[in-house]
Amino acid sequence: MAVIAIYSMKGGVGKSCTAVNLAWNSATNSSRRTLVWDLDPQSAASFILNGDRHKNDRAQAMIGGDIKPAKLIKPTKIENLDLLAADVSLRGLDRFFFDLNKKKHLGKILRELKKDYDRIILDCPPGLTETSEQILRNADLVIVPVIPSPLSERALLDVQRFLDAKRRKHAPLLPVYNMVDRRRTIHKETLAKNPKWPTIPMSSDVERMTRIKRPVGEFAPHSPSVMAYDKIWRGIERKLSKL
Fold it and tell me: Disulfide check for 119: which of 26, 52, 216, 225 has CB 3.0–4.6 Å away?
């Protein structure tokens, strides 16, 4: 079993779409029992996967131990893929972790979930917070979407510096260039700095996901973005096999 976090300190980098499409590859192409755990209060991944909105927000109550995860986990329309949806209660998650003062709390929940799943994909909230520290400590791999621009690269560098300063064990960070438009000079110049990093092209099909509410592989199987996600997922599987 492995935990793969999709994380960025910066918002607007395509994190949730990346989480959903990689989870689709895990469930469909690798036939893994897969769970998407949406930890972002904006709940974009939950929206794409048709997560139900509850009358009472319960996501943080589950993390606090008041509700069992099984009560909130729902199957999606995709075989092998389940969803633990986010809601607005997660806005207070950082304060909860800070007050709890238990650095291994998230890891305890993940160990319970591991009994039922081969792959857990975490859609993480942006920022460098108590929540992200717990995630970085308990994930096996961290995929970091990076738009080919100086500000997005700077955000990645800030995370790397933060982790180095902490001098604590953490999961490997695997940057992925996202929303790539090779017609733009700034994108071409940025890509040239790290030619071996995986890339996901700018795609109207990915943008359509929020309207169609399905992973792009479900409705546009020949899209260049589908091939990019597939290649990245195969690389993740190879990386996990060596851990």
Answer: 26
